[in-house]
Design a protein that fits this description.
homodimer; 222 residues; alpha+beta; Arc Repressor Mutant, subunit A; six-stranded antiparallel beta sheet; two-stranded antiparallel sheet; 8 helices; 18% strand; DNA-binding
Chain lengths: 222, 222
DNA sequence: TGGAATAATAAGGTCAACCATAACATTTTT
DNA sequence: AAAAATGTTATGGTTGACCTTATTATTCCA
């Protein structure tokens, strides 16, 4: 297999797709949101990625990673999350900033460096946001979790991972103590796509549904 | 002072100038060589850098870093060399590859990360190639050294630093044991810009003048 | 001092990744 | 089934950093 050089932009698109969708088709508009570009730009880029065999696009249905695309994406996620570990555990970088800084580093990381870093870190299994780190061969087992947005009134759940990437969102979650390991209780579910109200760390917190989608939890039986 | 975002390319030009010239004016052709671009491209870029107040260009005389340009360059060198330390000391990356990998990382490194990294490393003073690491404020004392290319027949000298950057050059120097700390003796100086022959580590080594320019040494009295 | 070598500038081209605007297609909702 | 919302495609534009080829300017050296 030819190891072409993939641009930073390409890596960002593939990573975003892996973070958002996993196996499923992703609406181009969702991609545009996460990458902060216009839907028109996404369309163009998706065409280019399609030509390279990295994604398949079914008009009006969404974009899906091909096998090849998923491999690349897992590799990007591996680099990203290993750097997150390093920045958080060793450099003591603020939790909410770790993603952002790791993201820049990730695109500048050669395979030799990735593997040496993994060794240095002791082959960690999860990043500070709780997400699993794909193995060197690209394999990784997804979390057995559901988005907090699907939790019902009165349910208790433990946060397993935070899949948000924007620093301001991460900062908000950090301030409100919605972090991996924490246990939250849903004490109100507002109608009309309204926010959830949670009890966590002795306090009540309102959380919009779209943010709650990126908080992955495991239900706890009472 | 406005903190505009400087492109990777800008950083590379400024860094190359700091590595090559220090205070002096640098011929555009030398820059073109080191950066592997055409002189025409250098000229264009130098104009852009001039407009940003980072360099001053005196036609037919050369390019020189302005105060502002030198500050940026020192900052880039700091990041570069700190990463070299990390890659070499902690990730055990091959000496000859360290520069190349650090170079990619350097452009992707936020100030917070730079300073946290410096702390993690214990504020090292030199990189694995022997070059001084500028302080956070940009200050740094240049080596008291001369290029090996200026050594005379019969002289002994200790290698203080290697200022080469190309991986294949570094690999050659590594194989021939021309590394910081080593002591070399000049046993032959060929005429017509010919190579130096050195005695180092029990072996004789031929070294072209242009390579010898990037080996910084301190003369040793016998 | 005149020619060679070197340096600079001009003109026009490429490429990736964006952008805006507008037209058109499809899906969803009412 | 029509209107609204969403998604797609077309067209044309921008920016940065490169490229080639050709011309002109300056410096160096014999």
């Amino acid at each position: 297999m030819t190891v072409m050089h993939l641009s930073e932009s390409t890596e960002m698109y593939l990573k975003a797709m892996a973070e958002l969708g996993g196996q499923d088709a992703i609406a181009a508009a969702r991609l545009a949101e996460r990458l902060n570009v216009t839907p028109v730009s996404v369309n163009e880029m998706v065409r280019r990625l399609g030509e390279q065999g990295l994604v398949s696009h079914i008009p009006y249905k969404g974009v899906r990673l091909t096998k090849k695309g998923r491999e690349v994406a897992c590799n990007v996620l591996r680099r990203q999350r290993l750097w997150e570990c390093f920045l958080y555990d060793h450099l003591k970088i603020e939790w909410s900033q770790v993603y952002e800084f790791a993201c820049s580093l990730e695109h500048a990381t050669a395979p030799e460096v990735t593997e040496a870093l993994a060794g240095f870190l002791g082959n960690p299994q999860t990043c500070p946001r709780g997400n699993p780190i794909p193995a060197a061969d690209g394999s990784f087992k997804p979390l057995d979790a559901m988005p907090l947005s699907e939790a019902k009134l009165g349910e208790m759940a433990q946060v397993l991972a935070v899949n948000a990437t924007a620093t301001d969102v991460l900062k908000y979650l950090q301030e409100k103590n919605i972090l991996p390991g924490r246990v939250v209780t849903v004490i109100e579910v507002a109608p009309m796509q309204g926010p959830l109200t949670l009890h966590v760390g002795g306090k009540d917190v309102a959380l919009g549904l779209s943010m709650a989608e990126f908080v992955l939890v495991k239900k706890i039986d009472k």
